[in-house]
Amino acid sequence: MLTIKTDCGTVCGFEKDGCNVFLGVPYAKAGRFEYAEPVTSWAKWADKDGVLDATRFGNACPQMRTYHEHLEIAERRFYHREFRDGLAFDYDEDCLNLNIWTPGDAEPSGTGSALYPVLIFIHGGGFDSGANSESPFDGSCYAKRGIVCIFINYRVGIFGYLTHPEIQKRYGRNGNFGLDDQLTAIRWIRKNIGAFGGDVENITVAGQSAGAISIQYLCLNHQNKGLFKNALMISGGGKFPDFALPRPGKQTCSYWKAFMQAAGINTGSEEADFEALKAMDARKIFDALDEFKLTRKDNTYNTMPVIDGVLIEDAVKTLIKNPLKLNYMLGYTNCDLYAPLMALIGHKFARANNGYVYFFDVNPKGEDNRKAFHSSDLRFILGTLEKSWRPYDDNDKKIAELMQDYIAAFVKTGDPNGGERKEWKCGGKRALRFFNKGGVKTRMTKPPYFRLICNMLFGGKQI
Fold it and tell me: What would you measure as the largest C-alpha separation in the chain, in angstroms?
């Protein structure tokens, strides 16, 4: 066991494979449909001796799969097998926690030891699902490379993105609880990660899918200047078409009002309705949501971040013209979601902001003979191929190690280049292509738009 003292109290983790691991570390607390307050003391979660046990994963935010897995849906079944099969998750609204991996010799700031750069990772899940304890999320490979690696849990779905006039009335802002959780976590990390040996002046934020889009939004708000130096967006950075961009919070309120009526909440008073939803049993909420979503075709666009004037201050098509001045890295896969669009927006953003782009062209092994699907690069980037059911081989492992070396250098210096690795040129005109046709290979290449379009139209589209 491993015990360290912090400003929030004493925390007990463990050592594994030369790394220090602290799981389920609370960073904030929040009531339902309330904005998070950073944790300053772990007394609420500590044992009788005042020690926080950080040896097991914390709670995930309740979500539809908590009660309605719907594995008869092909896409859900596919990603369940990829990321969650065989795992057990605890779901509770007390879910704002971190999983932290540090180098084995990491020591608190002020001890004279060198501090390590910090990599903060935000999981995906379409803003309505996901958890930091899914099988790809392990920070060991970066801790072994001298980096403190952290995975955030945040609120998703209705608990993360409900909008309602009463929220606006009470807080002067609306929705975006999940996005606010992420920002709260980053701020907590800046204040407290020194106790774990992390360098608060060298922080990189990274994320995949909805996590990457979240980072994009954080990078469009100049109030966040100075919180982090580098940003890595995996299958989700750049700019999306207007139909998929955040709308003003007041425009999604009607969707949630319709849901509340369908759930039997209709007192005639907005305040009373809101309080009734705050008090409603979580199982009943998701039972009602499961039925309500069958009657609507606009569920996705009403359960995501909104323009709230605080976290997302204006339309993204306006904000995208002036993002934070950071070191950027973006990536997409051969058969990504809307792969041609993903490539187009990623390269455009990289050209405008001198960023690095990669193109992941490694077809995963397995009886489904699937090409490089959305988020197939995640296990390579995080070094968790062995946790997959797929029979990855030595070439796959070499590609994974190469990607990790590039990203580790980017986290440390803002530049992925170094050693004997092929030079990765920035500027967005070309992408560094990772592929394993005839061995482990990389090449700077133009975006293969025709190929990506064909993949999307003729067999590359996700099930």
Answer: 68
pLDDT tens digits, one per residue of 91-104: 999 999 999 999 99
For 396, list phi and psi in degrees, rounded to 5: -60, -40
- From the number of C-beta atoms within 10 Å of its C-beta (0-12, 13-18, 19+), residue 437 rates as exposed
Classify residue 62 by its DSSP letter.
P
Position 369 scores a pLDDT of: 72
Question: Phi and psi (nearest 5°) for 375?
Answer: 75, 10
* Low-confidence stretches of the chain (pLDDT beneath 50): 461-463
CA distance 55 to 78: 30
Neighbours of 59 (CB within 10 A): 19
Which whole-number Å values give the CA distances from 121 to 116, 148, 291, 413, 460, in the listed order?
Answer: 16, 11, 33, 17, 27
State the Cα–Cα distance between residues 106 and 111, nearest whole angstrom.
Answer: 10
The pLDDT value given to residue 239: 61
| Two structure tokens written together for 260 | 């509340």
CA 17 to chain centre: 25
Tell me the chain's radius of gyration from C-alpha atoms.
Answer: 21
Helix (H), strand (E) at residue 330 = strand 327-333
Give me the helices (H) in 219-248, please.
none
Beta carbons of 215 and 327 less than 8 angstroms apart = no
CB 166 within 8 A of CB 253: no
Is the distance from CB of 202 to CB of 122 less than 8 angstroms?
no
Q: CA-to-CA distance for 154 and 177, rounded, in angstroms?
A: 8
